[in-house]
Every structure is written in C-alpha cells, then in structure tokens.
Design brief:
The complex is a heterodimer of chains A (249) and B (268). Helix content of chain A is 83%, strand content 0%. Chain A is mainly α and 249 residues long. The radius of gyration of chain A is 22 Å and the shape is globular. The longest helix of chain B has 18 residues, at 184-201. By secondary structure, chain B is α/β, with parallel strands linked by helices. Chain B has ten helices and ten strands. In chain B, strands 6-7-8-3-9-10 form a six-stranded mixed sheet, sandwiched between helices. In chain B, α1 crosses α7 and α8 (212-218) crosses α9. The radius of gyration of chain B is 18 Å and the shape is globular. Chain B has helices at residues 4-17, 63-70, 110-114, 116-120, 125-138, 154-166, 184-201, 212-218, 247-254, 256-267, and strands at residues 21-32, 35-47, 52-56, 78-83, 86-87, 95-98, 172-176, 204-209, 221-225, 232-237. Classes of the chains: A mainly alpha (249), B alpha/beta (268).
Chain lengths: 249, 268
C-alpha cells in the first residue's frame, strides 16, 4: 500500500471519530446511551489491562478459527464436487440453498438445543455460515478453468491429481480467496450469534453482560470495537494472502 | 542461422530421429444438437521420418480435428493412427503439440511453464533446469526464465509454448496454426526460425496453416483437405531446395505449386 493510501485511511478514521464526538456533544447524550470515543478508548484499554476481555476474546477467536477451518474445508470439497459432477450438483444444491436461505439467527437455538453450550455447536454455526460463500466461489472458480489448459494437461498425460494441483487449484485460487474474504467476516457474525443463543464466554456474551447485569455501556462499546477489529484483521489477513498468491500474476 | 553445410549434416540426423506416422482411413463424426456432423472422412496420410508436412484447408475442413486425432486427444470412430508402427491410443510422450494459442499457465514463470511437462513426468529439479537451459537456447528465449507470461509479447509467448512442446524431445511435432495470432513480420521470422529449429531438433513435423505461401515454404509436401467432412483432396510434393531462404516465401506465393493448391481449394 502506498503512503498516500495509508494516509487516506487514517484520515477517514479521524473524521469518523470527530463526527462521533460531535454527535455526543451536540446531542448531549449521556455515557449510558452513547459514550464519547475517548471514554470507550479508555474503557477498552482498561478492559484489556485488567484482563476482563481476554477470556471472552480467546473463546470467540477459537470459535471463529475452528468454524472457518471446518466450514471452508468442507466447502472446498463440496465446491469441487459441485463443479465437476452434475449429479452431485442436482442432489446437493437444494439443501445448500435451503441452509443458506434459513437465517443463521433462527438456526442457532436449534443447534444449541442439540449440542449444548459447548464449543461444538458454536463451531458448527460458524462453519455453516462460512460454507456457502466459499463453496459457491470454489464451484465458480473450478468451472472457469480454461478448457485449453485442461486439454494441454491431457496432452501431457497429467494424472487426475496433477490436473487438480497444477491446473484447477491455481486457476480457481483467486475466486476461492474471494469467497474466503466474504466467509471470514461472516464467521465473526456466526460466532457472536451462536454465543447469544447460549454461552458462558465470548465477546457476544460480554456485550450482553455489559448491557445487562453489569450495565457498563462503555465496556459494551469497547467490546463492539474489539469485535469489529477482529473482523477487520481477519479480512486484511485474507487480502494479504490473496495479494501474495494472486498479485504476482 | 545454421550454415547450409551444417544443415546438410543435420539432415542425416533428421532421417534417423524423426518418427514415421501412418494415418489409416480415419473417420470421425461429432454428435451435435442439430444431428451428427462428420468432421473427417477416410483420411489416410503417411509422414516419413524427418519430413515436414503442411496441411491446408478451408475453415471446417477438420484440420485441427485431424491434428487432435494424431495427438491422441480425440479418438477416431474408424481407422487408426500409427507412430513408428505402434498404434496411438492416447496422448503420447513422443508427440509434442503447439496449439493455436500459447496456453501458458499465467501463474507460472516462463521457466516453470517450459518445464511443466518434465514436472508432470516426474523429472528431478536439477535435470529439469539443465534441460530448460538447452531448450530456451533453442527458441532464443534466454533471460526470460523469471518473467510471467503476461510480461511477454505475443511472439515470445508462442516461443515459450514451442519450447514447452520441445522440452520432452518429441519425435513428432504437431503445430496447429501456431503463428496465426502473430503480426506479419513476426510471422515471417518465425517461419524461418521454425525451419532452422527443425533442422536441429530432427523431429517430423505436421503444421496446419491457412496460408498457401507458408504451407509451401515450410513443407516437403502440402496436403489439401476439403471442407465438411474433411478429406484429403490433394497431396502435393514441394520441390524447393533446402535450406530455404526467406525469398522463397515470396516466390512460393506465385509458384506453380501455389496455383495447383488454389485450384484444389477452389474445388472443395
């Protein structure tokens, strides 16, 4: 990224903070409705130094990480099968679309009912929400592999595995990473939603605690900021991988 | 360029190393939505070791289809293709193909593209690199190892594709209108270089082309295919001496052979 690009991002953040502060001052809102940015910042630092937020942060990150790996992993396999077999596409697509059409918010209580408050149910919800964009991106990517390149592979007597590793995967990678970029931010949503359905730890739990029994609205906002930062960092990480892998072409 | 004397000696190697190709009564029909469409009908052809055969014909004469049958990419409905007496029943290591478009893997460097066939064949890295140097020198692409295909000109990309086809030292080289996407000047130079290359690699060559002068300039023989379905309507020997000079390309356009080819093409 250029210095100019970095500066414009900093400028955008500064403008946002100034607007936030202006709304608080002009509207005269009390801290329990809308705390000022510096109040939230102070509370955020405090929450981290005192160790309030760490266990919740770790729990949520674990759900996101495992959920993303499981969901994206299964989606890669499913997406490939969907792209290469008309039969599998016909059999699977109604279920995949149905799972996608059912709001995750409505599914979370069901999974809680079946799997309880443990990690498993939460990982499943994250995996479920990550699955669709990655599976579709993989399917599109694999289908778009140049037929000329596949014929070249055939003329060079490439085995099935060689076609997969040297032609299909590299050709589909930009599309797959695009799907993962969407999937990773959705994984954050999945983790928070699953925690709301019932959990003892997690950033989603902390938001509820701060709003409810603790009535610590600055902490609630500090937690929201943390959640947003997690999403942004994960997104940037995928973009970074994408640049490394695809940018060189 | 190689001197005439050197070419003369190379011709001897040519006779021993190029493959013999026999195409016997090949027929192929494609099923389409509008019903079966015959692409090739009783095509027979013999290519002697080290011979260059040009195939010319109008669009839809099945030139590319015939090349794919020879290369083992399409199985004929009838008839057989023999390479040195052995039936070709699939893609073959002895046959190198240069397609109309370069078909380079955009995510690989030139070096990784050219050595791709060696990688698939399981060659170890050091042997791949040694062979890479040889074959890049052959097509005049030294120094482009680390470039991406997108950084190369169209001509250089087609050179890289040629290098890739030559990397396994095929005894039969199939060229499917390999220069059709290049500008006229580059194309002229490529024709000359191809002949030079042929004299050094000693492969038998079949080249499909749309251009009558090119067919004459390159070939020991020009085979004319008719359109829909493709049949061999003429097999004309070219009696130009080798090595051929670039002026031969101009002369070829107005030669009696060109007239004969045009007559045959007009009849198809």
């Amino acid at each position: 990224m250029t210095i100019r690009g970095a500066l414009s991002i900093v400028a955008a953040i500064v403008v946002g903070l100034i607007l936030w502060k202006a709304i608080v001052v002009i509207g005269g809102y009390p801290p329990f409705i809308l705390p000022a940015p510096e109040v939230v910042a102070t509370r955020l630092v405090e929450a981290w130094t005192r160790g309030t937020i760490q266990p919740h942060f770790v729990a949520t990150l674990q759900e996101i990480g495992l959920g993303f790996v499981v969901g994206a992993g299964l989606a890669l396999i499913a997406g490939y099968a969907l792209a290469r077999s008309i039969l599998i596409e016909r059999v699977l697509s109604p279920y995949i679309v149905a799972a996608q059409a059912t709001p995750i918010l409505a599914l979370a209580p069901v999974l809680y009912l079946w799997f309880g408050p443990g990690l498993l149910g939460k990982v499943l919800i994250c995996a479920l929400i990550v699955f669709f964009p990655v599976a579709v991106a993989t399917m599109v990517g694999i289908r778009s592999v140049d037929a000329g390149l596949l014929e070249l592979g055939r003329s060079l007597r490439a085995t099935r595995t060689q076609v997969l590793t040297t032609l299909e995967i590299p050709a589909a990678l930009p599309s797959i990473l695009g799907g993962m970029r969407v999937g990773v931010t959705l994984a954050v949503v999945g983790a928070i939603v699953s925690e709301w359905a019932g959990a003892s730890r997690g950033l989603g739990v902390l938001v509820n605690l701060a709003r409810g029994s603790l009535f610590d609205i600055p902490l609630m906002f500090a937690t929201l900021v943390t959640i947003a930062l997690v999403g942004i960092c994960l997104y940037v990480a995928v973009v970074f991988v994408e640049r490394r892998v695809v940018g060189a072409r | 360029m190689t001197s005439p004397v050197a070419v003369q000696t190379d011709r001897e190697t040519v006779r021993t190393r190029g493959a013999t190709l026999d195409i016997k009564n090949v027929a192929l029909t494609f099923p389409t939505a509008a019903g079966p469409r015959p692409a090739l009908e009783r095509v027979s052809l013999h290519v002697a070791p080290g011979e260059v055969v040009s195939i010319i014909g109008p669009n839809g004469s099945g030139k590319s289809t015939l090349l794919r049958v020879i290369g083992g990419l399409l199985r004929p409905d009838q008839g057989e293709v023999f390479l040195d007496g052995r039936p070709v029943d699939g893609p073959d290591a002895e046959i190198g193909i240069v397609f109309q478009d370069p078909r380079l893997l955009p995510w690989r460097s030139v070096a990784a593209n050219v050595t791709y066939p060696l990688e698939l064949a399981g060659w170890p890295r050091d042997r791949r690199l040694a062979r890479l140097a040889e074959v890049l020198a052959l097509v005049d692409l030294e120094g482009t190892e680390f470039a991406r295909p997108s950084q190369l000109s169209g001509g250089m990309r087609q050179r890289a594709a040629l290098a890739r086809a030559l990397v396994l030292e095929p005894r039969l080289l199939l060229l499917d209108e390999p220069f059709s996407a290049l500008d006229a000047l580059t194309r002229e130079r490529f024709n000359l270089e191809l002949l030079d290359l042929w004299s050094r690699t000693a492969a038998s060559i079949i080249v499909v082309t749309h251009s009558i002068p090119e067919a004459i300039f390159l070939g020991d023989r020009v085979v004319v295919l008719s359109s829909g379905p493709g049949r061999v309507v003429a097999d004309i020997p070219v009696d130009l001496p080798r090595p051929r000079r670039i002026e031969a390309l101009d002369d070829a356009a107005v030669s009696p052979i060109a007239r004969t080819i045009r007559q045959h093409l007009a009849e198809t």
